[in-house]
Amino acid sequence: MYSHRKTDICLFTMAHAALLLLISLTVSVGPAICFYGASMTFTPGNRYPDGTVEMHFYYRESGKLPCDPQVSWVCDSGDCGVLTYADPGITDQDHSGQILWCQSERHMTTNVSGDEPFTLRGSGCCWANNVHDVREWMLRSLVDTGQRSDTQTTNRSPVSATIPNIRVPQNCFQSLHLLVHDPDGDDVRCKCQSCHQHPNIYLEEGSCTLSSNGTLDVGLHVLEFTLEDYPASNITLMNRNGISSVRNPYNQTANADPTPLSQVPLQFVVEIQPPVHSCAPGVNRPSLLPPTPLHGDVQHAVVGRVHIINLRAQRMGDSFLDFQVSGPWNMSTTLRNTSQGVTEAMLTWTPQESDLHHHVPLCFAAETLQSQSEMRCIVIVVAKSRVLSGEAEVFCEDSSISIAVSKASMKGIDQSWLQLRDPTCSLTSNDTHILGTMSLNTCGTTMEDSGDFLVFKNEINSFENPNEVITRRSQIKIGFSCQYPKVASVSNHYINKKSDYIFTESSFGTFSYTFDIFTDSNFSSRADPSLYPLEINLMDMLYMGIAAHSALPEVRLFVESCKATPDDNPYSALFYDIIKEGCIMDDTVAVYQSDSRTYDFGIQAFKFTGGYNERSAVISGQILFMSIIMSVSALFSALLLLASTASASHFYGGTMTFDPRKNPDGSYRVDIRFKEAYHSCDTGDSWGCGSGNCGSRSNYVSNRVDSSSNGGSWCQTEAVMKRTVSNNSPFQLQKSSCCWIYNTVSNVGNWRLLTHIDLGERSDTSKPNRSPVVTALPIVRVPQNCARNYNLLSCDPDHDQVRCRYGVFSANECGMCNQHAGFTLDQSTCTLSYANATKGVYAFELVMEDYPTQNITLNYTAMAAAVRSPFRNASSNSPLSKIPLQFSLEVEAPAPSCTEGEYLPRFLHPTPHNGEHIQARVNQELEIRVAATATFSSITDVVFSGPLNSTKETTTTGEYVINWTPTSENYGQHFPICFIAEGQYGSRNYQSEMRCVIVVVEAAGPRAHVTCTKDAMSVSIERATISGIHGDHLRLNNNASCPVFSNNTHVFTTFSLNGCGTQIEETEEHLFFKNTIVTYDNPNHIITRKNVFEIEVMCKYQKKSSITTRFDAHRPAINFTERGFGSFSYQFEFYQSDSFRSMRNPSSYPLEYNVGDKIYMEIAPVNVVQNTEVFLESCVATPYDNPNYPISYPIITNGCEVDETVNIYTSHQANVKFSMEAFKFIGQYDQVFISCSIILCEANNPNTRCAQGCTNGTQVAPSSHVHKREAAMQTGSHFISQGPLRLRRSASLTEAISPSLNLNLVFVAGCVVAVVAMVCGMMVYKSRGSKVNYQLLKSDEI
């Protein structure tokens, strides 16, 4: 319950802040008494001709009433201009009558010169009284007004906010998801750089998620974060003086963070309240119900129109006080109480012209005096209305969606020009409405899994006659959807018959279920309803079945929970869990085989103690029977196919290894690596301390390793966690949850991982023990008729004996702890052998242990020494360590043949052998090549499990290359890598054997510097790093005409990319130029004393990249460079005719064409690289400067001429000559962008992309193509028309063109060019009658 201590807090802090108040006034910063936090976002406004930029700041502040802003922002650095403040407005305040909190929002503007970044600062005292006695607060915002090279606009800050007062019960704080949204699509990270550190709260910077790392003290906790945004790829910021600076993507493995684009504060408090009985939503804490938006949703609002957001929540046994809301200051809230403890709120807001293009954060939570729901946050994007929208009503049935759109709200709209996503589905109409009905899986309806709901979406769009050149019809796009709750509560009991339950949420869709009691385990005869109430003897079996009913073709029912209560109230304080989170809790429960839509189970009858509903009858003694309500939560989800086996969205397996080292201060650092696999790429860390002193986590980094759509669509991640412990006593880490993927033995079940770490100093090595190193693929697959051995990697860095065994439930080593029939585990060699088993998925929960090969002693700093002996038997020996090894194995349908190399892939040279040890060097890229073949199957992938930041590429020769670069921290450590080749035959996917290797990281090798230019490679090697080198006996590739030179300090050489035997290799993303420096001997000598050296050197060129460059009236040759890679120069020119002899004179710009005239273009290298060719891969037209924009018109796709007017004049040459007819878009788009990509390849190589030519056969026959040179486009109310052009129209131009139809087209050619060579030629043409003017743009017009 809210307490009055906060009022006392404020009185306390006022007395202590008096002196600070006087001091802070000297810097124009007012003290905020009982400060609860603040957030800020900013967005640019106008950019004026003199280069100054208008900036808008939106600042929210939370504190104790009264709600006057306490922060006065001051300029901390740079030119901040003059801040102009609008009057503050209250976003929300406490309505409990206790005057606890209030939040206000203020809009500030300033005009700045745009010469340099600037920083705003606000500070003061005091935070509300908190657990860690944090007092002063400091807010900073870093703004850089430079023009971005990717968007041609000023950067916009990340958007975030929180409600003023977050409250969480002590036992319910698991994670808190903060809002992270960036209007520019940048990568946002939350940092805690100079803030108070919370030992039991972990911040995942990438997702901005707070998670519990221990128990939090009851009281207020202050959280002070900074949000930073980083571009997705390298960009430049250009200020008005022409000075540019580069901004790089965030690399979490780099030693130093790159400079962010901006920084904004996000500070708030979390009140940890006393624990509650249940953390389940709707019990002790309010539960948010549909149609409440989901966290992270993005909504779109229109200037001048009312935008409505509906919230709905429920709480059993308590009434609502309010919804706490943090939104725009002029948003209003209307509450309405309904039945069954449900409260609804309608938020209404009308955006003003000043809100245009603003991304507005909105956070909310439902609360009572005693509790609060989860906090959810969304973003509202404000735009001008560009399309019409109608008033519509949507009807959601159990198998269909119907929509009725009012004609009165869509004046001038002709129903015959409207269609659904699938145009073959027709709309009908009557006098008042336009009508449409479709099933949940037809007419282009899409399904999204949004967590608690399945959302089915479709839309009504206008379309145009392809034979029309212009149109005067209004465009329309009406999106509509139905949300169906995945979780429904069904109940049954022994007195009243309940069947055919249909669950409906407001105007949302429904699924129906039946819950029946059967007479026996055959589940064919239902109990007669006329016999209710049923009389059941204690210990008799109750047989029950739940069935789901839906028209969807592929669904499965998953029973998430089942509990018994003594009365008809599933939220009763007295309950008994039968099934919880998919895991069976009652030992008598038996689940029977059923189809994907039913769940049949039995349980022995029981009664509650304490005299609940006892009745007696005498049947050979006293028999008791009673009334028990079974409350089942049925999870209804889309079916995930695991080959032929249904698979739930959960756990596939995990492993952990560790490597300790002693610190100079006597403490110990433990580097822990753990891999986990789920359906999605989950990189969270929720390991807890099982026993002993587990120390504190000092660092944590994680990333994706590999994923596959086969085997149920899995993703494996690896995380590296560093822990610091004060002594070397043993401790245990553990992690558990639910559920394993759907498996053959128990359908679903809990999983547990446990690691035992003993840091005692070994008497044989004088160092702490290191664990075995192990990894495994998340799921391996074997045909039912093919026996196979899986040699699990069992390597120990200390050369100990490694053994594997099944986990033991009582030791918390496993969740289901099954030992499956048909499989044999050789514990001494860690070999799992498959003989024969039922088809399906099996979960293996193994434990790997290491034992010394002789008696050793472990010495400790805080406990007595212990002896460890070689393994004799499991009961008498304690291992040195225990680590988990868990994975899934699927037994598939039989294969036509079990011979490797026919259907099952067979590995080829140079694939390393299983168990092979491979040496790697610090800071040098390791390359592991894998090749496989099969006579009948096509090799489709090599899936692998390797260390963090390892990557995989495919060469044009069909080899797979696993790359990894060790760092200095990896020196001396061992890293496992496992891999499997996959082949496809028809709809079947087959796997090869699994091979695993050990990578041992050695010290850094020779120091060499390789420089890559557009046509040559230069190599310089420090002689001091290679002992015994003879510089006069080295050459390239043993080619006598390609010597290597030397002086006292270096060995060096320079050679052409196509000389000295340089080899070219191609992957999907890169071109590699490789050569080798080797030693040679005098052929007249019969002995030598020179060391044999073989040093491979390589230049790696990225085949595709995107760079935006500036140009003036005529574009000169442009040289594109990417740091650390090679570069090539290309020239882009326009010609008079298809002879390509007469280049258009630069002085004749702007170029003028008639609509339909041919435009002749050439892209050619300035310096021809021998043995290469250029291939025009694609051209696409979009209404915005984004080639990946969802609305697009393909001109060339995969080398195929989609537009019938395109003519490509060259083939397999070093340049590209092509032409097309000028065209315009139909629709209200101010501009059109066309992006073309070319690829540079090795010439005459039949395996390259260039050699393949047109690959998808999408050439459009002339009879079926558009004849009037137009690209029919679809517009939508969610898109805002804006671009990089500022158009200057003359009076005559204005008279010649309809103001509503601006026909401008920007042409961007070669913006994605092979081998880091990108050529972006831009021109714009404007309609003047029937003429189209093409003009190259100056950079200040973009």
TrEMBL record:
<dbReference type="InterPro" id="IPR042235">
    <property type="entry name" value="ZP-C_dom"/>
</dbReference>
<feature type="transmembrane region" description="Helical">
    <location>
        <begin position="1305"/>
        <end position="1325"/>
    </location>
</feature>
<dbReference type="InterPro" id="IPR001507">
    <property type="entry name" value="ZP_dom"/>
</dbReference>
<dbReference type="InterPro" id="IPR048290">
    <property type="entry name" value="ZP_chr"/>
</dbReference>
<feature type="domain" description="ZP">
    <location>
        <begin position="395"/>
        <end position="650"/>
    </location>
</feature>
<keyword id="KW-0812">Transmembrane</keyword>
<protein>
    <recommendedName>
        <fullName>ZP domain-containing protein</fullName>
    </recommendedName>
</protein>
<keyword id="KW-1133">Transmembrane helix</keyword>
<dbReference type="InterPro" id="IPR055356">
    <property type="entry name" value="ZP-N"/>
</dbReference>
<dbReference type="Pfam" id="PF23344">
    <property type="entry name" value="ZP-N"/>
</dbReference>
<dbReference type="Pfam" id="PF00100">
    <property type="entry name" value="Zona_pellucida"/>
</dbReference>
<keyword id="KW-0732">Signal</keyword>
<dbReference type="InterPro" id="IPR055355">
    <property type="entry name" value="ZP-C"/>
</dbReference>
<keyword id="KW-0472">Membrane</keyword>
<feature type="domain" description="ZP">
    <location>
        <begin position="1011"/>
        <end position="1257"/>
    </location>
</feature>
<keyword id="KW-1015">Disulfide bond</keyword>
<keyword id="KW-0325">Glycoprotein</keyword>
<feature type="transmembrane region" description="Helical">
    <location>
        <begin position="12"/>
        <end position="38"/>
    </location>
</feature>
